[in-house]
Write a structure and sequence with these properties.
Elements: E1 8-13, H1 17-27, E2 37-40, E3 43-47, E4 59-62, H2 72-78, H3 83-87, E5 94-96, E6 99-102, H4 110-120, E7 126-130, E8 142-147, E9 152-157, E10 160-165, H5 176-185, E11 191-194, H6 203-208, E12 212-217, H7 220-232, E13 239-243, H8 246-251, E14 261-266, H9 275-281, E15 282-295, H10 301-313, E16 318-330, E17 333-342
Parallel strand pairs: 6-7, 11-12, 11-14, 12-13, 14-15
Antiparallel strand pairs: 1-3, 1-4, 2-3, 5-6, 7-8, 9-10, 15-17, 16-17
Bound molecules: S-adenosylmethionine.
S-adenosylmethionine binds next to strand 12.
Length: 343
């Protein structure tokens, strides 16, 4: 019998489940083919392919008895859903700490969908259906589908911890790779401005990587979580937060608080409207990461042209380093980010 057949699992307290899964994945021993199971009240067993060395867990157990139902379709079928109904269920969702966030689409009986997702994710206590994110403050609209209805959660990814209230602030699961990439871009001591910091999506991983980050956010609810996340991740000495309009921070002329940057992150779909403020603060040779929601037919020309035009207005030249698709934004529209060096 090899280790896989032994159905090994490690037991951890529920609030730590997501963080430990993160650690197990990095150690290469998380068994994604099996499910997280409720172990006793307050703890869960996480499936592993081998006993992990450097991961903190309470005990190692064998998952015995009936194998847990494997996927959402199994759980829905158990609730009497037909194959046609199951086809209308969502194919993906995000687990953010203790919350499952799902776009329920036109799934029938959303409450049952929520219950099934709770069964599938033993460490979660709430399922939220997400509606549109609207307005300049990017405010979410969520509905409780199942569980306790606690919209506050603490999510960990790539070693960064994000506290948030999903009823108040947006969190885009599809930006996960971009959040990690921003942390990988910076070098120690680099001066970064995150003009649209939100709860610290990019600012915190960049500060964790050693950058000195000026983080600007004008939505009061997001700003409170930005402060909390800076503290939780132990980077208060490397982040200067401002609750303000980023233009006011970058365009103020007081030499005592003048902001200069080696790198500027513009994580907002309307970022191009702020390019002049950004370029005014960017040192020669500095890098800008400009996000945009771009119709497919205009990728990558429109954001690239917008960058070139803004630089030309300041008699500066642009070297395009990379254009990336972050995710789909809507039908026929892509979320793209352009990395450019500005001389
Ligand atoms: C799209 S969200 C951040 C998304 C995040 N970068 C991500 O990838 O998930 C943009 C944020 O910018 C903030 N914001 C919009 N306009 C702003 C401005 N002029 N100054 C400062 N913050 C602004 C909004 O409140 C919101 O929190």
């Amino acid at each position: 019998m090899d280790e896989r057949d032994e159905r090994l699992a490690v037991v951890v307290d529920k609030p730590r489940a997501e963080a430990v899964i993160d650690d197990l994945e990095r150690a290469g021993v998380y068994d994604a083919d099996r499910s997280v199971r409720e172990y006793d009240e307050g703890s869960v067993s996480l499936p592993v392919t081998a006993v992990p060395d450097a991961v903190d867990y309470r005990e190692v157990v064998r998952q015995v008895g009936e194998p847990r139902l494997r996927d959402l379709a199994d759980h829905l079928r158990e609730r009497g859903w037909t194959d046609d109904e199951i086809d209308r269920a969502p194919a993906s969702w995000a687990v953010l700490g203790t919350v499952v966030l799902v776009d329920a689409g036109d799934a029938p009986r959303p409450a049952e969908l929520g219950e099934a997702l709770l069964d599938l994710h033993g460490a979660a206590d709430t399922v939220l259906a997400r509606g549109p994110i609207t307005g300049a403050h990017r405010e979410p609209d969520v509905t409780v589908l199942a569980g306790e209805g606690d919209t506050e959660t603490v999510h960990r990814e790539h070693g960064t911890t994000y506290a948030m209230d999903l009823a108040e602030v947006m969190f885009s699961p599809g930006n996960k790779a971009e959040r990690a990439r921003m942390g990988e871009q910076v070098s120690e001591g680099e001066r970064v401005v995150d003009m649209f910091a939100g709860i610290g999506y990019f600012a915190v991983p960049m500060a964790r990587a050693g950058a000195a980050v000026t983080a600007v956010e004008r939505n009061p609810a997001s700003f409170e979580f930005l402060l909390e996340n800076v503290r939780r991740n132990g980077v208060a000495d490397r982040v200067q937060p401002y609750r303000a309009d980023c233009r006011d921070v970058l365009e103020q002329t007081d030499p005592a608080t003048d902001v200069r940057a080696d790198r500027i992150v513009m994580g907002y779909y309307e970022a191009h409207e702020y390019l002049d403020s950004a370029l005014g603060a960017l040192e020669p040779g500095g890098v800008v990461h400009m996000h945009e929601a771009t119709p497919e037919a205009l990728v990558p020309d429109r954001p690239v042209e917008r960058l070139r035009d803004a630089a030309a207005d300041r008699d500066r030249s642009v070297e395009i380093l990379e254009t990336r698709r972050v995710k789909g934004y809507s039908e026929g529209v892509a979320h793209v980010v352009v990395d450019a060096r500005v001389e």
